[in-house]
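Give me the 3D structure for Sulfotransferase.
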Amino acid sequence: MAHRLLSASRVNARIAFIFTLSLSCTYLFYNLIIYRSAVMRNQGFEGKQCPPSKSAGGKKLLGKLENCASLEPSSAAQRGSSHLQRNSPAAAGGQWTDMNSRNMSVAQKYGNKKLPTALIVGVKKGGTRAVLEFIRIHPDVRALGTEPHFFDRNYDRGLDWYRGLMPRTLDSQITLEKTPSYFVTREAPRRISRMSHETKLIVVVRNPVTRAISDYTQTLSKKPDIPSFEDLAFTNRSLGLVDTSWNAIRIGMYILHLENWLQYFRLSQMHFVSGERLITDPAGEMGRVQDFLGLKRIITDKHFYFNRTKGFPCLKKPESSSQPRCLGKSKGRTHVQIERDTIEQLQEFYRPFNIKFYETVGQDFKWD
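Predicted structure for Sulfotransferase (368 residues):
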């Protein structure tokens, strides 16, 4: 009897052991399945794509790079920008486009609307649109596509209205906008300094004579009945008296406008881009812009090619597009023909202003 009881006890112990072992294996297997599913979901978040979005400014000029990639979990969002910067190769084509698109979509979902920390403030017909479109392919820059004209025309709407126009950005990204008329607006530097004394300012400058002709050409395309360039540029051409009240002439007197800005900002807060070098060496000029903004040099010569028809550089074709990206039809239009004596008279007029401008900014733009 005792032997039978002992045998039954051993059998029960074995059954209990087998049951416990089976239960433990089931629990372990169940946890492995849950872990694998979670990993696959996260990979799905990173790889999924949505249709391209359209913005107010994108159609007008260079089609935007914003392909809406589906968004990573919020814990990854704050490190998204630095991750993209570390892994963004300085190469043209699909890789930089896809990375920039993903970074934009992460910012749109998890970022905040902030006041800009950098502004392209001028000058009209200097190359500001090119600088904006080139810099906005950088994954750590988010730029407003249209010109808000806040500090010259819409200041009474208030900073909250202005902030509301801005794209969403992550903490590691720069918010930027462009309005070229700020540079020649007397109240603009004071108003911008009230927003922030630390704002970084980019000024794209160009030979003032060429800039004036380009300005006139643009106006003529909209108002074909305006007087000739020579009639507008001079109060007395035979005496060589230039009409400095004409805006196309006055904008090019850069030193007069700069003196106003230097009452509110240090020269070190301003970066001057050469409109001429932006055409002949876009990568070099954009490299210096990236340095000024404290960005890693991601935009390089591999992003550009020279469009001989338009006469200026374009961005190489992204993988997601069938065509390269160039500025709109209004950019690169043929200038009206101006008599050589008029050009020489204007060069003579601008020379003292140019020299003082070179001395102040510490850079010779070689316009003379």
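The CA atoms of residues 122 and 181 lie 6 Å apart. Let me know if you want a second pass.
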